[in-house]
């Protein structure tokens, strides 16, 4: 891609909102209480970037038994409580999105999480008003989540932009794989991730969100 893109597609968790560490802590506590001792670091490494249903399946396989009834809604409620008290935007998220909009570049969010979760976390962090009413997309709205391309292709089609005119910002290897499968240029933001793994998956490095406008050719 040599021209400035028409659309930047942001992942939400770990890219726009600093939620990954909080989610990992809450999940680790819930799994440990359910009989599967898990540290926050292990939860982050094992489950990052997965759909919740895949987290549950993987946890039950490790546990060798079903998780307790009501595990998922209890975990989600506890996580949301922590979000309300602790969640913050990723450094530079607001200013970067504003810079893109000022330059005429479209923006949207495409997350593995449910749409209501993305809506709420963006509101908590003061970022929701930077994105249009119909500019949030969830993997629960397409047949397959990341690492498949369905979500990004759905977002691009809805925003009326071809894949070759899109840039994706991701922080997981599953997200990078999805962007690559969608034939989109992808940057790997690795504030608390694995830079080497993201680059090996095919992402260009992004050390700060505020570097993005220059990297995509904006003055």
Largest sheet: 6 strands, parallel
Strand order in the largest sheet: 3-2-1-4-5-6
CATH topology of the largest domain: Rossmann fold
Say which CATH homologous superfamily of the largest domain is assigned: HAD superfamily/HAD-like
Structural domain tally: 2
Number of DSSP E strands? 6
The amount of beta strand, in percent, is 5-15%
Q: Report the radius of gyration as a whole number of Å.
A: 17 Å
What is the string of helix and strand elements? EHHHHHEHEHEHEHEH
Number of helices: 10
What's the end-to-end separation, in Å?
16 Å
Structural class: alpha/beta
Fraction in helix: 40-55%
Q: If you average the pLDDT, what whole number results?
A: 95
Query: Which word captures the global form?
Result: globular
Which runs of at least 5 residues are low in confidence (pLDDT < 50)?
none
CATH classification class of the largest domain: Alpha Beta
Under the CATH scheme, the architecture of the largest domain is 3-Layer(aba) Sandwich
Quick structural overview:
By secondary structure, this protein is of the alpha/beta class. Helices cover 45% and strands 12% of the residues. The protein has ten helices and six strands; from the N terminus they run βαααααβαβαβαβαβα.
Q: Could you outline the blueprint of secondary structure elements for this entry?
A:
Layout: E1 7-10, H1 20-33, H2 40-47, H3 52-63, H4 71-86, H5 93-102, E2 106-111, H6 115-124, E3 136-138, H7 150-158, E4 166-170, H8 173-181, E5 185-189, H9 195-200, E6 204-206, H10 212-215
């Amino acid at each position: 891609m040599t021209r400035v893109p028409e659309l930047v597609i942001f992942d939400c968790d770990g890219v726009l909102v600093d939620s990954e560490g909080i989610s990992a802590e809450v999940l680790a506590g819930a799994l440990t209480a359910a009989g599967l001792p898990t540290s926050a670091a292990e939860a982050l490494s094992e489950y990052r970037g997965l759909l919740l249903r895949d987290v549950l399946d993987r946890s039950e396989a490790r546990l060798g038994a079903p998780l307790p009834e009501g595990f998922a809604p209890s975990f989600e409620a506890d996580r949301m409580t922590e979000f309300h008290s602790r969640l913050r935007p990723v450094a530079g998220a607001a200013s970067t999105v504003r810079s893109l909009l000022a330059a005429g570049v479209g923006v949207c969010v495409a997350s593995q999480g449910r749409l209501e979760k993305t809506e709420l976390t963006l509101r908590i962090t003061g970022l929701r008003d930077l994105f249009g009413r119909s500019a949030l997309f969830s993997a629960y709205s397409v047949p397959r989540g990341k690492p498949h391309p369905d979500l990004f292709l759905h977002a691009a089609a809805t925003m009326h932009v071809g894949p070759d005119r899109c840039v994706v910002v991701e922080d997981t290897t599953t997200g990078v794989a999805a962007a690559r499968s969608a034939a989109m240029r992808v940057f790997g933001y690795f504030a608390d991730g694995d830079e080497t793994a993201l680059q090996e998956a095919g992402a260009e490095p992004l050390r700060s969100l505020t570097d993005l406008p220059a990297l995509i050719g904006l003055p």
